[in-house]
Amino acid sequence: MIINILGGGPEDLLPNLTEYLAKDEIWVGVDRGVYHLLKRNITPAIAFGDFDSVSSEELKFIEDNVTELKKYQPEKDETDMELALNWALNQHPSIIRIFGATGGRLDHLFANVHLLLNPFKEKNEVDVFLIDRSNIIFIKEAGSYTIEKMNTKKYISFVPLTLNIRNLTLKGFKFPLENRHISIGSTLCISNELISDYGTFSFSEGILIVIRSHD
Question: Are 99 and 156 members of one domain?
């Protein structure tokens, strides 16, 4: 099972959502993202939000078309996106994709990137991706990983999320590394590229943000 979550970020940053329509995929709407889904004739199985970013007419449209609607007060301890993600994690899917979570307010962007840590805190092995028109963002703990070339997103960047990344090794990349230590704030691993169909990256300590991008 795959769960797709659509937040209320700028519509012009959304990828083509029809590429993510399949029978085994569940859609979740978050705040204004619910309205964006319904406009695309995608009915979410569940929706979350305080809905302070929609008009009264848009909210009525949402209420008329979504069966399971979780409405909250604006004053709460979690963001709407965190509430949706925590629900999704409890369904134990194989993959969670989050759209509409980049662009606009920078505080929301940083909060959404840090939400990628939630599966690790819960010891949940589900893969969670932030996806927009130009980027795919995910987080990895220490380990060894294979990564496949994507012609549509040829740049790959590795950004430390923790203080230190130990023994970072990149193989199959234009700019390889061997057992390199990098610290938070380093830009050493920005805008790398794969030189073959597959490459590997590994490290022994820390957490990395991995960003796949195109211009």
Answer: no
